[in-house]
Amino acid sequence: MAIQASQAMIPFLHARQLEYLVRSHKSSLSSRFGDRPKSAAQLISRRDSNKLACKASVDDSDEDYLIDAPVSAGDGFSFSGGKYSDGPSQSDEWFKQGNMVKAFPVLGSGEKAKDPIFGLTMGSGSQSPADVFRWFCVESGIADNPPVLLVHGFPSQAYSYRKILPILSKDYHAIAFDWIGFGFSDKPQPGYGFNYTLNEYVSSLESLINSLGIDKVSLVVQGYFSPVVVKYASKHQEKLNHLILLNPPLTSKHANLPSSLSIFSNFLLGEIFSQDPLRASDKALTSCGPYKMKEDDAMVYRRPYLTSGSSGFALNAISRAMRKELKNYVEETRTILKDENWKVKTTICWGQRDRWLSYDGVEEFCKDSKLKMVELPMGLVCFPGGASRAGGFRGRTWKTDCGDCWQKSSAMMVQE
User: Fold this and answer.
1) What is the distance of C-alpha 219 from the center of its chain?
2) Cα(first)–Cα(last) distance of the chain, in Å?
3) In-domain check, residue 395
4) Three-state SS for 349?
5) Would you say 83 and 70 are in contact if contact means Cβ atoms under 8 Å apart?
6) Is residue 396 a part of any domain in this protein?
7) Which residues are 293's β-sheet partners?
C-alpha cells in the first residue's frame, strides 16, 4: 500500500547532490555523541544558478521510549501502544540506530504536566525530564570526518534523512536529530519546561550543537524550520562552514502555514485532530506534493502519535507558534541573508513540485542576495515527513522506490 507524500518531508536531494554542496575540510573535534566523539565539516557554495535533473542505540528498557508498548502510555489520550504487527518494524530498526543526547536545560517549575482540556495528569511521555532534555540523534561516519548536521522540517523527523546518512558517511560525519516535540526526542506538555516558541528552538539548537562538541559545522535544513536555523547561524557565523536551505520560506507568500498544518493551531479542533495519527501524520505528509511513500515508512511517522498524546499536543503548540511568529522570522531571514555582513556560504536548493511554498520570487531573491541557487525541476525538497523521498516515491518519471535518484542528487550537493 502506498500513501501520497508531500512537501514538508525530506529533501529530495540525492546524497550526491548534498555532497556537491559541501566542501570537506577535515578538522578535529573533541566531543561526545553518546559515547562517540564528533568532528567538523564545510559545505561549499557557488553564486551561480544550477539545475539538477532527477530520473525516474538505545536501552529498550527505557519506558519513556518503548516502541511497542503493550498498553497505553496512560495520559488519557494514547492509543494502545501503537503496536501494528508482531514482527520487527521500520521504526524499531531506526530507533536502534540512535542515541539519546542531553541538551538544553528544562526551564519549567518542575510541576507535573496536565492536559489542557480536562486537567488530568499526563503520562511520562508528556513530562519534562528533571534537568536537561533528551534528543534522539542518529550519526553516520567516523569522528575524524567533517561534520554535517541534518535538520528536519516541520512536521517531520530525522528519519527523513535515512537515505542520505550512509552515503555521506563515506566522507563526512553526518548527524540527524529529532527536534524537541518530534520523533523520539522529549515531547513535554507545553507550559511545563518548553513552550515550543521559535526563540526556544533557536536556543535549543545552540545547546544541542554545543553538547555535541562541534567547533565548526555545516547545516542542512528543510522547510519551515529554516528561519530558526538562519537566526541561529546569524549569531554564530564563526561556527558555520556552509548553510544549505532546502525549500525555505523566503517570500511574503511563504509566511503563512498551509491549511493542512494551520488546522492544528485551532482551539479545540486542533487538539482533536492532532490526536488522530492519520490526520496528524498522513494528512500532513500527503498534502504538499504528488509523490507517494510506502506504508512501512508511513508507519514510522505515525508511531509517535500512536504511542502517546504528547506528540499531538506538541504539534498544536508549534503550529500556534509558527502561525504567530513565522512572518517575522521570514522577514528576519531575508534581512540576514541580504546583509553585507552575512559571510556564511549559503546555498538555496529548490524542488519545484512543492505545493506549499511557491517558487515565485525565490530566484530573484537569490540573485539579489548573491546566494547560490540549485533547482530541482522534478523534486520536492521540503517534505513534512521525509519518508516520501527516502521511502519510495511514485511519479511520472519515478519508479516505486526513488531512493537511488534521491541519494545521487543529495551526494552531488554535498561533494566538493
Assistant:
1) 12
2) 39
3) no
4) strand
5) yes
6) no
7) 3
* CATH number of the structural domain spanning residue 292: 3.40.50.1820
Looking at residue 388, its pLDDT comes to 32
- Cβ–Cβ < 8 Å for 411, 19: yes
Burial per residue of 364-394, b for 16 or more beta-carbon CB atoms within 10 angstroms, e otherwise:
ebbeebebbbbbbebbbbbbbbbbbbbbbbb
| Dist. CA 176–CA 194, nearest whole Å | 21
Task: Please give the tally of structural domains in the chain.
Answer: 1
CA–CA gap between residue 387 and residue 384 (Å, rounded): 8
Beta bridge partners of 285: none
Residue 273 CB contacts under 8 Å (≥ 6 apart), including other chains? 263, 264, 279, 280
302 within 8 A of 279, measured Cβ to Cβ: no
Question: Of 143, 137, 140, nearest to 39 (Cα)?
Answer: 143
> Which residues have a Cβ under 8 Å from the Cβ of 88 and sit 6 or more positions away?
none
List beta partners, residue 20.
414
Rounded CA separation 304/4 (Å): 20
* Collapsed DSSP state (helix, strand, coil) of residue 250: coil
CA distance 158 to 160: 5
Across the 416 residues of the chain, what is the mean pLDDT of every consecutive 10-residue run? 42 47 39 37 37 38 38 35 58 91 88 80 82 94 92 92 91 95 93 93 96 92 95 95 94 89 87 83 76 79 88 93 95 94 92 85 91 75 35 26 37 45
117 lies in which domain range?
95-379+404-413
Residue 21 falls within a domain, yes or no? no
What secondary structure letter does DSSP report for 378?
Answer: T
Q: Extract the runs of DSSP E, i.e. beta strands, from 113-234.
A: 132-140, 147-151, 173-177, 217-222
Grid cell in block for residue 107: 526551564
Distance separating alpha carbons of residues 139 and 32, to the nearest angstrom:
12
Interacting residues of 4 by C-beta distance below 8 A, sequence separation 6+: 286, 289, 290, 291, 292, 293
Handedness of CA 32, 36, 37, 43 (dihedral sign): negative
What is the sign, positive or negative, of the torsion defined by CA atoms of 149, 195, 78, 278? negative
Question: CA–CA separation, 154 vs 9, rounded Å?
Answer: 8
Q: Which of 217, 184, 198, 224 is nearest to 7 (CA)?
A: 224
| Nearest to 169, CA basis, from 136, 149, 145, 152 | 145
Residue 289 within any structural domain of the chain: yes
